[in-house]
Amino acid sequence: MSTLSFRGQVRYASGATVDVAFDAEGGVTALFGPSGSGKSSVVAVIAGLLRPNNGLVRLGDETLVDTSRGVCLPPERRRVGLVSQDHLLFPHMTAEANLRYGMRRAGPAPTIGFEQACAVLDLTELLGRRPAELSGGERQRVAIGRALLSQPRLLLLDEPLASLDAARKGRVLACLERIVAEWNTPTVLVSHDQAEVRRLADRVVVLDEGRVIATGAPDEALAAAGPLSWRDETGPMNLLRLEGVTQCDGAWTARVAMQELALPPLPAPPDGPLYARFPPHEVTVAPPGDVGVLSARNRLRGVVRRTVEVGGAVFVAVELSADAETSLWAEVTPQSAATLGLAPGAAVQCLVKTSSLRVGS
Ligand SMILES: Nc1ncnc2c1ncn2[C@@H]1O[C@H](COP(=O)(O)OP(=O)(O)OP(=O)(O)O)[C@@H](O)[C@H]1O
């Protein structure tokens, strides 16, 4: 198993600096962060497309970059399989020829065979087609297959799902899950999608403004990184993984941290993991105990872990009882935070209207 040890500093002429260090020991390591946080710079340094001003990058016992000794291996000698958003398949070659091109770069004792890769990535029907005759998701699967067949010591996936719609995303995600389970090739996944990260990653490195602001298991690292990193395209967003989703008399419910959550109606029984998304400003914080009759059906009990003031609002991280791994953010005014005594250790309940929840994969 190749461990990636990354230390790199890049200073751009624009004044932007990326200064990042992390270790990735097998499994899937996600680089997560908002736009401009430095993810692509780190990928480019690992792949050999960008030489850092200072850096020491090692993969297993091989040194890819050591600026102090003037070492910077060219991309083709790194055995890093890169799949990026603009999957660069050869347009004049069929899917099969693209895949076999990947195999030409493999070492003498391949561990991943052609038929096996086609089966896992669902490519068998597509082999005779050229890239222009494939959908975005199909092209992405061929690109992943080609990278895998080159027997990389490290798979580098740079936002592999970014340009796909929800259905195609689900299909490629399922393929990635199978790849991880089948071969356990050490993988670095770049993403700004929390759900993707939680589903695939063993550990997360959260970047912001060119620095590492948290690392650890997905829930832990994302919670530690604070509300500004818990974003989707619409702004700060909570994301809770739902367990035991069931329907009874037309009402859908699920469990989160051993507590019950009432869900809005779902079109169909879930196929794969489901998440509830809701913005922190949709959460009402109340003291524990009876708060009387309210329209909000969801009352999640927890303990305040920390508070962060951002732009005149107070974001409160609440660790849900019975599962300290799961937390959510509530946004309140400084006045409410003071009145309610929202400080670390305070017991609270978080009221969330069912209609505020968006449920999806
Ligand atoms: N070629 C360049 N010249 C000057 N500045 C750059 C260059 N490439 C990146 N930067 C700056 O370096 C910082 C990190 O950028 P980087 O592309 O690594 O971030 P990112 O997290 O990959 O962003 P995105 O999610 O938008 O791709 C940003 O401030 C960016 O403006």
From TrEMBL:
SMART domains: AAA. This is Maltose/maltodextrin import ATP-binding protein MalK. The lineage of its organism: Bacteria, Pseudomonadati, Planctomycetota, Planctomycetia, Pirellulales. InterPro entries: AAA+_ATPase (IPR003593), ABC_transporter-like_ATP-bd (IPR003439), ABC_transporter-like_CS (IPR017871), Mo/tungstate-bd_C_term_dom (IPR008995), ModC_ABC_ATP-bd (IPR011868), Molybdenum_import_ModC (IPR050334), Mop_domain (IPR004606), P-loop_NTPase (IPR027417). It holds the Pfam family ABC_tran. Residues 293-361 form the Mop domain. Residues 1-234 form the ABC transporter domain. SUPFAM superfamilies: MOP-like, P-loop containing nucleoside triphosphate hydrolases. One of its GO terms (cellular component) is membrane. GO terms for molecular function: ABC-type transporter activity; ATP binding; ATP hydrolysis activity; molybdate ion transmembrane transporter activity. Keywords: ATP-binding, Cell inner membrane, Cell membrane, Membrane, Molybdenum, Nucleotide-binding, Translocase, Transport. The gene is malK.
